[in-house]
């Protein structure tokens, strides 16, 4: 599908360029502004889920109570230092990200639940469920950062990089996971959907583990094996490592909380949400390379780490023998000149333009798929998530 060529047709070029990062100005040679790089509509992968200030405050207000319940309820009184450590662990790692998964859980619940059931108690439970998804996410990040040797996370040193943590961070990741299950038991064990919720968390844990395994198979040595970088492999890693728990899980949990456990309803929601999750990861890959670190909150390191990204896979699909040799020689190196050479190659292969066309086509395709959803699922829920990914107004 052709990209839109008439973006900002009625605006003066000078006014458009005010405040744009240099990276975006450099990419203006392509057919249209990339919505992924436009600051005023920075997407979900960079800014987080757009919710009201009241909803954000409501969600944040719930977290201290969860920490208090986990650390000051009279349990483990013979080891107070463990409770103190757990509080420190949770406060440092859980609430400081974008909270996409937690906020999406609450948003989905409020849009799926019958109005008469939107009591303060049920909304509070939805917020708690949202924090459980955030603890699940934290558990994944703690392990992932150790496996990949990541230095910084959310503008602060990764937990395992702290001098008082190190490889003990593996146990801390299990600690967070256990805290998540304790919170679920405390608040939901009497609910009819508790068993299904536990099954969903366990299923997501398995899927994430598969995703990490698939990714690690491609980077088992210091030098990535580019012959394994196929679109099939990339899509499998993306689905298992990201899409399931970032998109399907929040909506799936909300469906269960509202009493909807019909397999076909969950299947239809899953189909669309996994497609959104795949694009979300592709968007994240693009931002890692071409985004402004001041906006996205991190310095991109996918090239240095030799990761199997959408950009790398498409580049290898298009590369001549000479260009493929450039990938072989420079990809996976932390040397600034090697990273710059790969980025130059991406632009030579017109990957920003390819992404631009892909972004437009994916947006239109997902809107069409949402319109075809049946089983009484509200289209507005999926449109809300979609527009947060693309940061659009429709």
From TrEMBL:
The keyword Transferase applies. Pathway: Pheromone biosynthesis. SUPFAM superfamilies: Terpenoid synthases. Keywords: Isoprene biosynthesis, Magnesium, Metal-binding, Transferase. The keyword DNA damage does not apply. One of its GO terms (molecular function) is dimethylallyltranstransferase activity. Its cofactor is Mg(2+). Gene3D superfamilies: Farnesyl Diphosphate Synthase (1.10.600.10). InterPro entries: FPS1-like, Isoprenoid_synthase_dom_sf, Polyprenyl_synt, Polyprenyl_synt_CS. GO terms for cellular component: cytoplasm. GO terms for biological process: farnesyl diphosphate biosynthetic process; pheromone biosynthetic process. Belongs to the FPP/GGPP synthase family. This is Farnesyl pyrophosphate synthase. It comes from Papilio machaon (Old World swallowtail butterfly). The lineage of its organism: Eukaryota, Metazoa, Ecdysozoa, Arthropoda, Hexapoda.
